[in-house]
Amino acid sequence: MDKYLEIGYWSSVASSGWAWILDHVFTLQTLMEAAAITILIPIAFLIARPVKKRLERRAATPDGQEGFFERLLSAFAHIAPFLAGILILYAARAAFLAYGLTGAFLSLVARLLTAWVMIRFSASILGGARWGRFIAMAAWTLAALHILNLLGPAMVLLDRIGVDLGGIRISVLLVIKGMIVLTILLRLALGAAGVFEKRIHTFQDLTPSVQVLLSKALKVTLLVIAVAVAFGSLGINLSAFAFIGGAVGVGIGFGLQKVVSNLISGIILLLDKSIKPGDVIEVGDSYGRIKSLGARYVSVLTRDGFEFLIPNEDLITHQVINWSFSNNLVRLKIGVGVSYDADIHQAMDLMVAAANDIPRVLAKPAPSCRLMGFGDSSVDLELRAWINDPANGVANVSSDLRLAVWDTFKAHNIEIPFPQRDVHIKEAPFHVHPLPTA
Q: How far apart are CA 211 and CA 218, in angstroms?
């Protein structure tokens, strides 16, 4: 095996390879096969173009949501030109054999193209463009090396290239295997976590906070298990990474305090149920409905369409007004001043009646009106009304209440005075002082 690391070995391989190229590539038969491939592949793509377009039209859906059947048609549409190319190449090889030629180069290209078609089709069925391309490229590379009889030497070479780190032999081959295994296991773990999360959200007995907490905990657990299984399948002892844990601890101590603080704060928020998705909260100048709880931040959607991402630590250390903590009842207070000449009892009854006409104002608890004081220019009244849907806005209901009171007072000739001041100028006595004499 050590011969793969010797310069002399690769020098001999290069010499042998060049000799093989001269004997097999730069020959009349190989050049004829290459010319045939160059001409036939574009012809195959032209022939398959109508079939590809028809399959793409059948696979297209109005809502953009592809099912398994549509994904199957789309996969056939992508490989249709390559299938046509494979058929034409094998037909050309049969023609070469009929005239006593081997057709080895045609056979090699056809086999490589067949492997690509099979792998690309399988990856397309799995769904996901990036995911499918990654699987296709990795699998086709392995298949191509196997077809060219280079898989064994390539694996040995990659296994020899590596370093010793913390008692672990990390080679290029180990890294590649680890990436493949870890990618597959992480994909499976995320898929399983998604299925379990949907199942958890169907349990009506669990509060939204508990549902989010269970979903996050289950997702993290599955990811950790996937990583552990991936390393175990590669023969790596996780205890060998103890030094990495120490480095991570030092990094947390120096630069990741806020990240860890937000993570712990997020767990606390989910456990103590102080806020949950759907609550209407107010933090500083931010007011809106909680859209989602994340590991690092809380998403608060305002009535203006803005989405504030508030760090979890701020919700722990700062004052938070939760308008819907124990219930959704919110009392609104509307201050109104009326003239001293008005009938106060009538004005208070009219304000209550105006509030009852607002659709979002609750009948129970019923609206009420209180006399709050005697001002300099008016008698100060306060209308109090209850709503149970603060997520739909508070300012709009307050505006409706003020407008209803205004219209009601106008209809009953009740004056809403504006501040007035009487200024009295008092004249001072005029005294004439005699001029001083010399």
A: 11
Residue 361 has φ and ψ, to the nearest 5°, of: -80, 130
Instruction: Output phi, psi for 50, to 5 deg.
Output: -60, -40
**In what order do the strands lie in the sheet containing 330-338?**
330-338, 379-387, 368-374
- Residue 329 sits at φ, ψ, to 5 deg, of -75, 130
For residues 12 and 48, give the distance between their C-alpha atoms in angstroms, rounded to a whole number: 44
CA dihedral 183, 185, 187, 188 (to 10 degrees): 160
Q: How far is CA 386 from CA 367, 398, 407, in A?
A: 7, 11, 21
Q: Which long-range contacts (CB under 8 A, 24 or more apart) does 101-109 make?
A: 101/29, 101/32, 102/29, 103/33, 104/24, 104/30, 104/33, 105/30, 105/33, 105/34, 105/37, 106/33, 106/36, 106/37, 108/147, 109/37
Nearest to 268 by CA among 222, 229, 320: 320
* Residues contacting 128, CB < 8 A, separation 6+: none
Residue 197 in contact with residue 219, Cβ under 8 Å? yes
For the chain, helix (H) and strand (E) counts, in that order, are 13, 10
Q: Confirm if 166 and 241 have CB atoms less than 8 A apart.
A: yes
Contact between 334 and 394 under an 8 Å Cβ cutoff? The reply is: no
Nearest-angstrom CA–CA distance, 195 and 181? 21
Alpha helices in 234-256 (DSSP H): 242-255
Residues shown for the chain: 438
- CB of 290 closer than 8 Å to CB of 242: no
| Interatomic CA distance for residues 344 and 372, integer angstroms | 12
Taking all residues of the chain, what is their mean pLDDT, rounded to a whole number?
75
The pLDDT tens digits for 3-56 are 555 566 666 666 666 665 655 566 666 777 777 778 878 888 888 888 878 877
Report the C-alpha gap between 235 and 238 in whole angstroms: 9
DSSP 308: E
CA–CA separation, 437 vs 392, rounded Å?
Answer: 86
Residue 21 confidence (pLDDT): 62
The DSSP element (H or E) to which 84 belongs, if any, is: helix 68-98
Count other C-beta atoms under 10 Å from residue 284's C-beta: 12
Q: Which two tokens stand for residue 378?
A: 């008016």
Q: 334 with 414: CB under 8 angstroms?
A: no
Residue 96 is encoded by which pair of tokens? 């070469």
